[in-house]
Amino acid sequence: MKIRYQGKETETDAASVAAFLAMHDVKVEEAVVEYKGEIFSGEAEIAVPLEDGAELNVFRIVAGG
Amino acid sequence: MGANTYLTERERHILESAKVGIAGAGGLGSNVAMLLVRAGMKKLVIADFDTVNESNLNRQFFFRRQLGEKKIDALAANLLQIEPELALELHDAQLTVDNADLVFAGCQIIVEAFDSAESKAMLLHALLPLGKPIVSAIGLAGWGRSNDIRVRKVGRNLILVGDQTRDVRDGFAPVGVRVSIAAAMQANSVVSLLLGEEP
């Protein structure tokens, strides 16, 4: 299936948001995950199935302030 | 009369009545607080457990004579120099998953103004599910690349300021010229949200 990841069309066979994030080395606790316009933060939330055409954005939390 | 004499009666009423929380009184938080008071806000809830040290003076709204003072006390004194009629709620505390929602319970908007990535992540994961607008700054270290610092709306209630890239852990120094841009964009987002406009 194809999803829109970080603004770009991306081909994937990941079954869930969690699986996709794991494939891309994203640690949920160190990022803000936006899937289909909603923020997902917990392990349970990201276990949802990845849907064809859905939009997924990851914002890595970096230090500084 | 508030500090900002350029506001309409309606704008002044909205800003003076609103209560905003600021998590952290360092490079981001001290400057956000200063700008919100200059914008006409009077009710701020500020939490920080740290003291002012010399390395803070490159970017934080403190002065050399305040070295060693608690940041919340030094910041309150400086804010009151701008506007004497403030209702400041100061918390000399380290925010955690367990107390962050209580500290900011009465606030309409919360500003994430920490420096460490771990603290930023903790606050965002603790407060975002509550649904209140959170204005966070991520990616503001170093200098130059001013146009890379942007404001984005993420999900329903996160306003994210920064370039999401430049990390002090990668050797980019926290410098006032760029931290202040992010702080100003956070404060601008708060004012805009309160006045019903796009951040």
Summarize the model shown.
Chain A has one helix spanning 17-23; strands at 2-5, 8-11, 31-35, 38-40, 55-60. With 65 residues, chain A is mostly beta strands.
Describe this structure in words.
Chain A has a single domain (2-60), classed as Ubiquitin-like (UB roll) (Roll). Chain A is globular and about 40 Å long. With 65 residues, chain A is mainly beta. A five-stranded mixed beta sheet of chain A has the order 2-1-5-3-4, with no helix packed on it. Chain A has one helix and five strands. Chain A starts with a strand and ends in a 5-residue tail after the last strand. Chain B has 199 residues and is of the alpha/beta class. Chain B has one domain: 3-Layer(aba) Sandwich (Rossmann fold). In chain B, helix 2 (29-39) packs parallel to helix 3 (71-82) and helix 2 packs across helix 6.
